[in-house]
Amino acid sequence: MPNQYTLKALDIGINTHQESVAYMREDCPVCRAEGFTSNSRVKISVGSRSVVASVNVVDSQVIPEGHVGLSKSAIQRLALDSVTDVMIGHADVVASLASVRKKVFGNSLDEADMQAIITDISDHLYSDIEIATFLSVCAGGRLNIDEIVYLTQAMVNAGKRLHWPGHDAVFDKHCIGGLPGNRTTPLVVSIVSAAGHLMPKTSSRAITSPAGTADTMESLTNVNLELADIRRVVNETGACLTWGGAVNLSPADDVLIRIERALDLDGEGQMIASVLSKKVAAGSTHTLIDIPVGPTAKVRSGSDAGRLASLFTQVGAACGLKVRCIITDGSQPVGRGIGPVEEARDLLAVLRCEDNAPVDLRDRALLLAGHVLDMAEHCGLEVAQQKAMELLISGEAYRQFCRIVESQGVFKSLPEAHYQHTESAVLGGTLRRIDNRKLARLAKLSGAPFSPGAGLRLYVKLGDEVNAGDTLFTLYSESEGERDYALEYYRENTDLFVFD
């Protein structure tokens, strides 16, 4: 039996996100006896609970003798609320890491390999470095169709699943991203569920964008619902708009997304598995996938979009999901707002049929809602889009949105950012190009999505005639430092807006 030692656990007050970290003194006898150094993996146990943590070695004055400092995540997983004796020893060998190394050397993973990897990631047995390695060797088209299916199924199997008895058809939609401001999901869910179809929507937070659907909806209502509450909301309203990470649906996905965000990576196979695993786990039977294509979108060409659509359809079919993909214009941002609160302003303007509502966001939402309604009612796209329009214009979609929001919690008032800066055009001309990626980066530097009120409001679209002195955008931030850093980035990237 491996040696185990007793130390007193101390909450050191460091947030390491989801990775458990143990801080041990450089003169700690446990380190010396067992050869623990920085990045060693240790098992920490108290009673029936245990975590695997990475070791960080600190100077002796940082932690009292006989103590081990634990990160916030480790404290939470061990359910410690006071200084407590814990047992520390070597972590067990994580056998599935052999499968990761197998993939590093270019070999394919089978179903058992993928299930073991995802199970161990879900159980927090991997360090962040090991998760990053797995994501990296799966990126760049390195997963074949079978591996993507195995990954999707493994992610479903690792978590809980929702079931909707009495409903033969349950609908969902997803945009693969890459377009700032493209907040169509709350609009589509409101329209489709107003038509009487079940649409329990669980969404992710932002990965590489300034806002995800969950981030935007959180500025309006509660999105951290337990499974029982999701069922209640859906039973009451026929839909929901919640954060999937709160309910252990495809739990590995939330861990992987955190590392993807740090790497600024959104690999093809991982993305497909991430999207479809959450659809299956949420009990969906039919899913619409929106694939925007543009020079600075995630997908740059029609051929790449066609390949991605084929993969989505094949993987969906293997997982019992009917998938329809549509390829849309990804040449510029959608709507006017970028960032959680600014995007919420846009979607509310569309739902309320306000005169200043962004037309492109409305039309895009109606197109997507029409496709979902066609999947549900087999009435043809033209008839379906007309029905979607009527539900929006009549106010029924907005009333349905209010029912969903109020069932999930209070309808929040949108906050105002502490700092605002308006940027004007230096030269005039016709706007020919907007760099989506750099614009998203600008919004993120302002503080989005972590500061909900941070972001941008755009006043120009492709093809607009702009004069010197015309307003291009207003930047919102919660601190002067973020504002100034974002503006410095903008002024260094003169090709963010291209005029001729």
Verbal overview:
This protein starts with a strand and ends with a strand. The strands form five sheets. Strands 1-5-2-4-3-6 form a six-stranded mixed beta barrel. The protein has a four-stranded antiparallel beta sheet with strand order 12-15-17-13. The chain is built from 18 helices and 18 strands. Helix content is 42%, strand content 20%. Helix 12 links the parallel strand 10 (286-293) and strand 11. The protein has helices at residues 29-34, 72-78, 97-104, 111-122, 128-138, 145-157, 185-194, 213-218, 227-237, 251-263, 268-281, 302-318, 340-351, 359-377, 381-393, 396-408, 436-445, 480-492; strands spanning 4-11, 21-25, 41-46, 49-58, 67-70, 84-90, 171-175, 199-203, 239-243, 286-293, 322-329, 337-338, 419-424, 429-434, 455-458, 465-466, 471-477, 497-499. By secondary structure, it is of the alpha/beta class. The radius of gyration is 24 Å and the shape is globular. The longest helix has 19 residues, at 359-377.
Outline the secondary-structure elements.
Blueprint: E1 4-11, E2 21-25, H1 29-34, E3 41-46, E4 49-58, E5 67-70, H2 72-78, E6 84-90, H3 97-104, H4 111-122, H5 128-138, H6 145-157, E7 171-175, H7 185-194, E8 199-203, H8 213-218, H9 227-237, E9 239-243, H10 251-263, H11 268-281, E10 286-293, H12 302-318, E11 322-329, E12 337-338, H13 340-351, H14 359-377, H15 381-393, H16 396-408, E13 419-424, E14 429-434, H17 436-445, E15 455-458, E16 465-466, E17 471-477, H18 480-492, E18 497-499
Parallel strand pairs: 1-5, 2-4, 7-10, 8-9, 10-11
Antiparallel strand pairs: 1-6, 2-5, 3-4, 3-6, 12-15, 13-17, 14-16, 14-18, 15-17
Helix pairs in contact: 3-5, 4-6, 4-10, 5-10, 6-11, 6-12, 7-14, 7-16, 9-16, 11-12, 14-15, 17-18
